[in-house]
Design brief:
Elements (H helix, E strand, L loop, with lengths): L12 H24 L5 H37 L3 E11 L5 E10 L7 H15 L7 H28 L3 H4 L2 H14 L8 E2 L1
Antiparallel strand pairs: 1-2, 2-3
Helix pairs in contact: 2-3, 3-4
């Protein structure tokens, strides 16, 4: 007898079938477990992505608050001269949300019926342009244009006073308005083009 030989065992066909089923089940469950188990290599990458995404989202949220506050300050200070609501420029974040990253507001700068009204409008426009905590370069430009508009209105008021020999209160009547409108037609007074600011 050979010491390496083993006695033969008979395996019934039913046992063979049961053993085969067990092997299939074990193989299938091992494959499924491996597929659902997250890869160890993927975890650091996912955490790395989150570390990049979160600060970007925080910046977008902060910028959104700044832009909305900025435009709200213009609207509040501009009052009845504001035309419509604020227009925003958006950027979509990694979370799928759109965040405001820029904006503007339209303001009425049409001429009033007299230089007194123009002076009042210029003051409101200037106040609206400089209302936010950190006015933009465009806001400063608008404020400068409003200052110029106010200076022109003051010159027109002084000219009316000289020509009429009247006090400002007397000129701010229907007769004074008619005189101003006649002078404006004759001299072709400047018009103001100021449409919107950021």
């Amino acid at each position: 007898m050979d010491i390496f030989s083993a006695p033969a065992f008979r395996i019934s066909p039913l046992a063979k079938q049961a053993f085969g089923e067990k092997q299939k089940f074990t193989h299938t469950s091992e494959t499924a477990t491996e597929a659902t188990r997250p890869e160890k290599k993927g975890r650091p990458k996912e955490a790395e992505n989150q570390a990049i995404i979160q600060p970007e989202l925080q910046k977008l949220k902060h910028r959104d608050r700044q832009v909305r506050t900025h435009e709200a300050a213009h609207i509040t200070a501009g009052g009845s001269l504001i035309r419509g609501s604020a227009n925003f420029k958006y950027q979509q974040g990694a979370d799928g949300v759109r965040y405001a990253v820029g904006g503007d507001v339209s303001i009425d700068v049409s001429k009033g019926r007299d230089p007194y009204e123009n002076l009042q409008k210029a003051r409101v426009i200037q106040r609206a342009a400089l209302a936010p905590a950190n006015p933009s370069a465009t806001d400063h430009t608008v404020a400068a244009q409003a200052t110029q508009m106010a200076a022109i209105a003051r010159i027109e008021i002084a000219r009316l006073n000289r020509e009429q020999g009247a006090t400002p209160a007397q000129l701010n009547t229907s007769a004074g308005v008619a005189q101003y409108q006649r002078m404006e037609r004759e001299t072709g007074a400047e018009t103001y083009q100021l449409n919107e600011y950021a």
